[in-house]
Amino acid sequence: MVIAFGTITAIRLRSSAPIARPLGIARAVPQSPSFVDGAWYWVEQLENEALLVRATDARRELVRGRSIPSYAVAGHHLLWADQQPDGFRLSTATPDGSGTRVIRETDGRIMGAWTDGAASAWLEQSKRPGSASRVLPPLGARCRVLLQKGDEQSVAAELLEEFETGEVLGFRSGVLYVLGIRAEGLRASVIYRIKPGEPPQRIVGETGVISAVLDRATLYWTAPSRESNSTMTECVRALATDTLKIDTIADWLPGGGRLCLSGTDLLLLSPSENAPWLVDHPHRLGSPLALPPDEYCIGAGEGRLLTVRRRKTPGRVAVSEVLLP
Amino acid sequence: MSRGLERQVNPKIAALVILLVIAAVQAWWWRAFIWRPKSPTPRPKANMMQMPPGPAQETGRKDVAVETIAGDPEPGCADGPGRDARFDAPTGIAIGANGVLYVADSRNHRIRIVRPDGETTTLAGSTAGYRDGPVRTARFQSPCGIAVDESGRVYVADTANHRIRLIDNGEVRTLAGGDAGFASGRGAAARFRYPTAIVLTHRPAKTLLVADCGNRRLRTVGLDGSVQSGTLLPSAPLSAALGVGGTGWESPLPDGASIARTGPAISGIHSALKSLSIAHPGVVLPLGPETRLLADASQGALLLVEGTTATVLAGGIQSPGSMLGWRDFSGDQALFGRIGGIVQDDAGRIYVSDTDANCIRRVTVPGLIRRKEAGP
Fold first, then answer.
1. What is the Cα–Cα distance from B341 to B123, expressed in whole angstroms?
2. CA distance B88 to chain A (A)
3. Nearest C-alpha of chain B: how many angstroms from A38?
4. What are the pLDDT digits (tens) for B154-193?
5. How far is B29 from A74, CA to CA, in rounded Å?
6. Chain B residue with minimal CA distance to A138?
7. How far, in Å, CA of B342 to CA of B351, rounded?
8. Residue A67's Cα: distance from chain center in Å?
9. CA atoms of A23 and A26, how far apart (whole Å)
10. pLDDT by residue (tens digit) across B38-86?
C-alpha cells in the first residue's frame, strides 16, 4: 500500500504540473477563447444574453448581446457578430471595446468573423428559397463570403452551400480559406480556397465535424482516423497552401478535438481529456501536456493555456491561465 | 505533567482524530494525484459514422449483400476506379446499356458515369453555373435528376438552373426551361422551379416526366421541348418513378407516409409504411403492380413493399432516432445515409446513390423480382 502510494505520488510529482494563475470568475464556461496581444478574449453564453469578455489581470465585459456567434481580434480591431431580432449585425471596435461602429446588418446569418487588422472577412448564410427536402441537398442554398478592406466591402465568393456553422480560417497571399460544416444527414465538413473573382475551389472534404486552423503556409484539420476503425480516435492532416499536397501528420488522437495554434505549437483540445495534446510532427502519436489538478484546458495561444475549474456555485466558473514550460 | 496529559486525553477521541487525519490525507492524495475531473464543456463527437444508441426496431435481411462500388463517404470530386472515385451528394441515378450507371453528382455540378466494375468518369459539367456546349465546358448547377434512353441520350433535371438539359453526341443543350417560375410552353418559354427528378416514359409517346418540386407538380416534357402544366400534387414531389410498363408515375410525398400516383391509390401503403414508422418515403422504384422498392428519407433504409406488407431489405429503422451511417455488409448490418436514387439492372441487382455517404452502392437481394421493362 505504502509502495503504491509512493510510486503514484512520485510519478505525478515528476510530471511537474505548472501552476494556474487566476484570471477571474466567469458567469458561464468561456467559449471560443483566443489570446491576442497580451489579452484573453472569450464569449460567455448565458440564458438570455451573451457577453464578449476581455481578460488580462482581471475579467472585463466588452460587449453584451442576445447571441455572439463569432468574434475576432487583431491589431487595433475587435470584430464581432451579434444576433438581432430580425437578423444579424457585424460591429467593430477597439480591443478595449471603445469606438463601436456597425459595419454590416443583414437578414441572413453571419458566421465565422475573421480579421487580421488590415482586412476582415465573414460568411453570410442566406435564407433558402427552395423547399425543405429530406432527400436532396438544400435547394437554392447560398452562403456568401464577404471581404472588407478599409471601408470597402465585396463578395469574394458565393458558395452553393448551407452550413450549420462556418469559419473564415484566414487570408494568405490574396486567398481566403473557409471551413463549413454541413448540417444535413450524416454531416460533412468542407474547406474552400477562395481567390476573389474566381470560382471557389473545395480543397478538403471530410465526414463528420472537423476543426481547422491556418498557419502561415499550412492548413491543419482534424479528420476521422486513417489508421484506426474506432470513431473515438481521429487524426490531424495538413495541407501545404502552395502545393496543395495533403499529408496525415498524426493519428490515434482522442476524438472530437479542437485544434489551436500556440506560437509554433499545434495543440488538440479534446472533450475527453482535461489536458491538451501536443501534435508533434515527427512523433505521429502526439502527447498530452501536464496541467494542474482540477483544471480543464479550454483554449490556447502564444505559449499559454486558458483553463477552468468547476465550482459548485451555478454561474460561477473560475478561469485561470497556465504558462507552458 | 505528561501523566496529567495522559489522563486528560480520551483515547477514543484521539483514535477518531487520527482516523480523520488519515482520511483527510487520503482524500487530498486522491484528489491531487488520481482524480481526473470530467470536462465541463462536452463537444459533439467528430465522426458521424457510428450506430446511434439503442436497439434497432427493425433491420434488414441477412441474405442481402450491400457493397460500395464507387466513391467513399469523404466528399470530393475525382474520377478513378471503385473507392478511389469521389462524389459529393450523388442524387439521381439511371441505368443505360450494358449496365452503365449515370449519376447526377449534385454538389459537384457534374454528370458522372459509373461502369459495373466501379470505374468512374465524368460525362459532363465543370464548375457551377449555366452554359451549353461541349461536355467539358458545359455547366450545371446542383443537378438532381437523370434519365437515359436506349440510344445513350442523357436527360438531366438541372435543379438550381430550373431547366431540363440534354446531353447528346458530346454536347449539352437546354431542352426546356429558363428562369425560375411556372409556365407551360416550348423550350425556353417553359418555366420550372427546382425540377428534382426526371424519368423517361414510352407510352403513349416517348416523353419525359419531371418532378417540379418548387411548383408541386408532375410535369410532362416532350422530346421537342414542349412542356405541359402537369398534375398538381398535395405537396412537393421529391422523386418521380414510372409504374410498371411505363404507363403511370409514382412519387413519394415528403409530408406524410404516402405515395402519389396516377390511377387508384395504392391500397394499404399507408398502414404498411406506418407499421415501420416510415414518415418520409424518399425514393420509390415500382417493380410490379403490388411490389415496389422504397427508400426512407430520414432513416437510411431500403424497403420492399408488397401489397400491405413492408419489410426492410437493408439498413435499419429505429424509433425514435435514425440509423444513418455507412457500412457495407449483409442487409442486417449495413448502414446507409439518405438514399437519393434507386435503379435495377437486368440481373435484378439494385443500385442506389447514397447521397449522404457520397457513394454508389450495389444491393443484391436473392429472389427479388425483376422490374418489367418500360420500353415501347
1. 18
2. 9
3. 25
4. 999 999 999 999 999 999 999 999 999 999 999 999 999 9
5. 43
6. B142
7. 6
8. 17
9. 9
10. 444 433 333 334 444 445 567 889 999 999 999 999 999 999 999 999 9
